[in-house]
Amino acid sequence: MAREMAMLHDVSRCSACRACMVACKQWHDLPADFSTPFEGQYQSHADLTSKTINLIKMNERIDADGKFHWDFIKFQCMHCVNPGCAKGCPKNAIAQLDSGAVVVDEDKCVGCGYCTINCPFNVPRVDPDRNKSTKCDLCFDRIEQGMVPACAKTCTAQAIEFGTIEEMRELAHKRLEVVKKDFPNAMLYGVEPNGVGGTHMMYILTEKPEVYGLPADPKTPDSVNLFKDIIRPIGHIAGVGAVAGLAGVFVLSKMFGKKGGD
Amino acid sequence: MDISRRSFLKATGLSGLGLALSSLGLNLPTVKAEIKKEFKLTGAKEFTTTCHFCACGCGQIGYVKEGKLINLEGAVDSPVNRGALCPKGQGYSHIPNSEERAKVPLYRAPGSDHWEEISWDEAIERAAKAIKKARDENWIASEEIDGQQVQVNRTDAFGVIGGSQINNEECYQLVKMFRALGGMYVDNQTRVCHANTPPALNAAFGRGAMTNQWYDLKNTKLVWIEGSNMAECHPIGMKHVMKAKDKGAKIIHVDVRYTRTSKIADYFIQIRPGTDIAFLGAIINYVIQNKKYNEPYLRRHTNAYCLINPNFGFDDGIFSGYNPDKRSYDMTTWMYQVDENGKPMKAAELEAPNTVFSLLKQHYSRYTPEKVSEITGASPSKIQFAAELFANTEPTVFMYALGLTQHTIGVENIRCYTILQLLKGNIGVPGGGIDAMRGQPNVQASTDYGLMFQYFPGYLAWPTQNTNTLEKWTNASGTFRAKFLKNLMKAWYGDAATPENDYAFNFLPIRNTHNNYSIYCQFEAALKGIMKCMFVCGQNPQVSNPNLGMVHRGLCKLDTLIVEDPYVNETAEFWNRPDNPEGSEPRPPSEIKTEVIFMPACSYLERCGTMSNSMRMIQWRMAGPDPVGDSKPDYEILDMLWKKIRELYASSTDPKDNPIKALTWNYRTGPDMVIDLMKEVNGYDLTTGHLLNGIGEIKDDGTTNSGMWIYAGVIRDGEVHMAKRRGQEDEGDMGVFPNYGWVWPDNIHLLYNRASCDENGQPTDPNRKLVWWDAAAGQWTGYDRPDVGSLTAGPDTPAGQKPFRMTGEGIGRLFAAKYSDVENGQTRDASSTPVDGPMPEFYEPVESPTKNALHENPNAQFSPCVIYPRMPDLQKIGTKDEFPYVMSSSSLTEHWCSGTITRHIPWLNELVKEPFIEMPHKLADKLGVKSGDKVKVRSTRAEITVKAMVTNRIQPLRINGEETFVTWMPYNWGFKGLSTGPSGNYITIDALDPNAQSQEFKACLIDIKKA
Known about the structure:
The complex is a heterodimer of chains A (262) and B (1011).
Chain A: E1 5-10, H1 19-28, E2 55-62, E3 68-75, H2 84-87, E4 94-96, E5 102-104, H3 114-118, E6 125-127, E7 132-134, H4 140-144, H5 150-154, E8 160-164, H6 165-182, E9 187-189, E10 201-205, H7 222-238, H8 240-247, H9 252-261
Parallel strand pairs in A: 1-10
Antiparallel strand pairs in A: 1-8, 2-3, 4-5, 6-7, 9-10
Helix pairs in contact in A: 7-8
Chain B: H1 3-12, H2 14-17, E1 45-50, E2 59-65, E3 68-74, H3 87-91, E4 106-108, E5 116-117, H4 120-137, E6 139-145, E7 148-162, H5 168-180, E8 183-187, H6 189-192, H7 197-205, E9 222-226, H8 230-233, H9 235-246, E10 250-255, H10 260-264, E11 267-270, H11 276-289, H12 295-301, E12 314-315, E13 318-319, E14 322-323, E15 328-329, H13 356-364, H14 369-376, H15 380-391, E16 396-400, H16 402-405, H17 410-424, E17 434-436, H18 443-448, H19 470-477, H20 479-493, H21 519-527, E18 533-537, H22 541-544, H23 548-557, E19 560-565, E20 595-600, E21 609-612, E22 617-621, H24 634-648, H25 658-662, H26 672-682, E23 684-685, E24 704-705, E25 715-716, E26 720-721, E27 742-743, E28 771-774, E29 779-782, E30 820-823, E31 826-830, E32 885-890, H27 906-909, E33 916-920, H28 921-927, E34 934-938, E35 943-951, E36 957-959, E37 962-964, E38 966-970, E39 1004-1010
Parallel strand pairs in B: 7-8, 7-18, 9-10, 9-16, 10-11, 16-17, 18-19, 19-20, 32-38, 33-35
Antiparallel strand pairs in B: 1-2, 2-3, 4-5, 4-20, 6-7, 12-13, 14-15, 21-22, 22-27, 23-24, 25-26, 28-29, 30-31, 32-39, 34-35, 34-39, 36-37
Helix pairs in contact in B: 4-24, 5-24, 5-26, 7-17, 11-14, 11-15, 11-17, 14-15, 19-20, 21-23
């Protein structure tokens, strides 16, 4: 029987060795990407790109008490329980697998970019060369073979854990108790149902989500639910033209607005 | 196992390998996907190997299709890494597919500005002839030393650099052939990295290696990381630290800046570069003053109660016996008071006059938190906190790497750890120890194999003018070690080495103790016209040495440079240097008359052999993908080279060439050569032809041979290679894994584990039981192999009471007294004493921003035994008025050593793109610099331009009342590779520790200006 899986990143343990980034690229045969120049920062890429689908963010911070912190977090697709990207995909090219992995089917993807707009975490990136949406696929092909995703397997500090969703929830709660001793503001993120239904990428954060660039209260856009449940079924009957027309009501304006800002 | 796992195993051929299922991480329920994607590994052939960066020795599984590597990941069945790999180990998968790999041998003619492709035959012939020419034209049959004419059978015109990057079998070939040629300038990266470790640990415990295995870290309660950025430079070691943390251990990180290690530590304390002895001296002082030491352990296992010569003294930074003209000590007063048998006398009371303990107490009483704060910049309260933490937590493990070694006081830095651990009884016990984390994949073995001028394989001292006969050598090193030297000579010279001819001792070149043969001085010898031909194998001194201008000038003066490497690196192409950080324009190639022969070597993934990791574990590496182009395994290259040299000398009748002709060299070809070489290292019973099963079978009468005694037992009859073992057993759950790989000596994982037992041979802590005396069975036993000379010598015998059996005294040495143990009128074994003091004393770095706060004596500003400059015209000491800021230097997670490999991995280059300098905000404000601005960094040696990284991770320090700015720079760049940039090592100083000649990378003075 298929099992629902999850990944847990304990940021208090992460050393930002970035082995997970290299392992990800190695497994997925992704090339190096020098889109962010070095300007005196440790973080390698300003944000996710179509070639960098897993990013360790690194940020120096002084807290209200004047104490120094170096915050690290692994950032990639959150594999939402209620994935806006999949629901909003006009080509039905994004599947949510039984494992919980949310995966782009490249055979179907046309690179329209709706998924980027509909993602509350701003994760998917359209590869301009191939016109395909790209993002973490939770190494679903490895999971299928009983293997741990490349990033979790290679993690040098056991900051990234992977297992069944029940195991990860239990581990998250257990570790939170320990982490709280050093970080009183520590909290779980994505472990329990939230505005995206919870996520299969879960975190133990030492500070509130905004410190790590995560939305405090992520939400699958209402418009996507509308699209998924009402408009797309109609569109599929009426044909692609109808989809574009109807989808345009709520998506295209956002998309163009976004592109203008890039 | 369900269907998909079975089909996966079948598809990948795993069942053929016979590995445990867990080796691939197949421990999850499988989930069927709806999306069709061909599984990457289907149809691939696996092989297992070990990683090639730091010396963690992580297990890897590679996957090959049609001769090409398609995937590389951590082996889950390796207890070292359990499937994990750091970004470097993961990124190495690019190297067998790298376009830039050298594919054919190359030749650069004198004065030429380009390479020419040549055949292997031509490359080998040119190299062999160049070596022969350098040797024959510069042979020193005898020379005058200290007024005596001494037969020395040596050449100083040919040098070897390398060993830490090649397999064990290749290290053995290299040292054997080079020494048979009469060479003395032999060195490898261990000199630059950890050469200071063996003399320091040896002085206290009798062996020079990391004491505890990686897997033992889980047993500790306090991980003290000082002199290491472990999360970045030994990431998998850190994985074991995190296991300890999960069981409640605390982590303290003491370093010159806040790093990724500090981020996951519980506590961080910043100190000024080069002040570890002051900091640790305060901890020693606290432990003694507050009686936090382990008295029973001191009594049973150390020399704390031993009485030292009453004339021993210490005054204003100088120990008794100092000769300021020679800048060296006469150690006569550093000896014990001995009884009629020559054994050390002990006092009844710990604090009786002249006991080791009372000398320690007095010596470190000066190291108060207030005084140490002035020196280090750490506040007195933080120093107090650290001292209390150490004193009240048991056991503690000390983790260090180059942050302690790369100083002119490197040996004495490490000696502080040995004192602290002996005081607390933390050596030989689970969760304790001093873990000297080696930084090159096979640097433990390149040291083991004696690719250093002062050693044979197995840490036997190379003969000098004072020990130039077997008798004199035995008198100095002892009968215990003479046995192993005879076995080595039997391995090297076979029938030509007999008891009657002192095992051909007269074949050996003799070292002149007045010459410094270290890697730095190889280039100085070239500048002086002594060195003519250099062979560099898997090393890149044109990036990794300090004061790179010296390296470049030396290379320009050579007749011939031979380089063997997977890439044409900066050393091979030194003549094509695009700029000159020393100021003037780079010399045009036409003016550089050095011929260069380049031989393309396979990467480790493409050849088989064994490597020894930091915990002395020897592991087998299978060959995976096909070699790139016409590159060859190093063992084949060295074999071809030696056979050509031997051919050139075949008709010689000159006696100086006899060692070449007599050297044994009977190995099969291809991968079998590797097996035969390890058999010779292991040794044979020459009367039966059987392989030896351990050190205990080595005989003193010429009926056995063993190329290196400490590895005896690694390969057994029937080609049972212990290094290939992958057993998962860990009886007792103590983190030993005795059936995984094989650990020298005799598969003892936790060195000195006898010290975890009391007088009766019973574990002092029943909760951390590792070895014990089984009275009923009449032998030592346990979960680890007991570290005793004889398993049947019980606690009621003298041999059963030697927890530190490799020191002359058999006990741990808080005070490194000069001592030889005499038995039947002959030296049995001798202890090792650092040349710069029997107890660590704080001295400033050679380039320092302040006056030594502990002493007025000008000879004690920096170490009284350091001789610098060696070449005053070319080596200057920068001063604070011109160079006001302190710079420290090291590697980081993503790039490694000279960067020859990592700068060819695009996945690492995208993470860290170029060199930079880290500086505190306050300094940046003063200089008008923002993060990302270019700055000129200048020392008295050179100037380079890099970008600034302005950070809160380094804070300004208050040193002796003055605000002091510390900066840091990675050194891993050069002008070759996919990521190029200025080499930080043009800036660093080549002042050396007087014991083992490691350089002071960690502290020099610079000026910074906005570019």
